[in-house]
Amino acid sequence: MTMTELLPLEALASVFLRADALEAGYKDREIASLVRGGEWHRLRRGAYVLTEIWQQAGQGERHALMARAVVKQAKTDGVLSHVSALPEFAAPLWNLQLDTVHLTRRDQRSGRAEAGVRQHRGLLLPEDVCVRRGVEVTSATRTAIDITTVTTAEASLAVVNHLLHAALTTVDEIRARYAPMERNPFTLRTDLVLRLADGRIESVGESRFFFQCYRAGLPAPEPQYVICDTQGREVARLDFAWPEHRLWIEFDGRAKYTQHARPGETVADVVLREKRREDLVRELTGWRCIRVTWADLENPARLFARIRAALPGDTSVA
Prior knowledge:
about 325 residues, alpha+beta, 4-stranded mixed sheet
């Protein structure tokens, strides 16, 4: 008898527990055999997913599966939060620790220590909780605040900008929810992220560049700066620009040449189209373009030396 015959189809699409398998007619020795044989993948003791699903899952989905296992086995009432809420919003996971599932308890009590699980006890208001893909998680607004308590400002900014760009929350909504929490020790980091957050910024790489501009003491560039032709028609949006200095930045992430390809286009076609776009912008504005890659972000001193050389005069922010 196959797993499909024993468990309902909805169970096959996600996480199931030992209790589910026993109720369906399996014995412990059969469960052990299926795990050893590679048909089932054990997420944690007593929680499983079909190996096929696990193998097809990306990094974020694997964390989401593990988080669902924790929720199913939890003996207290809690919701997925912090890093563990992010996969449900398709939020970026750059530089985040995914080996721990975060759960915020509704009873505000401290839970016992458990390997791979971190229990939080902050006050949850009704509006702090929503359901995403069938599981309760903290809302986008609450998650934007919580993420600043467990990671760096740079990684937090990438998450918050994603939530803003996806129209899942607004800066005003985040600030309103954050106001009664400002006495907490993470105030400075949260304040910084909210000060820099901008929903016009579209990717992790762009968020990192914007953050590093702040850290380098440069004036904030304008995201998604619109360029129009002589008839006033929009012909391009620049990733970042300093119009007063006649300089713009294009961030060359992989998505620009793969995910944003038009139907039938090759990567070479996208590169040529991007080159024509850059030539047009330069012709219309006379500005200089600096292209930034992920590798540049790993050597910010060299990157910002290039940018400062292109910016006239003293452009440092006091």
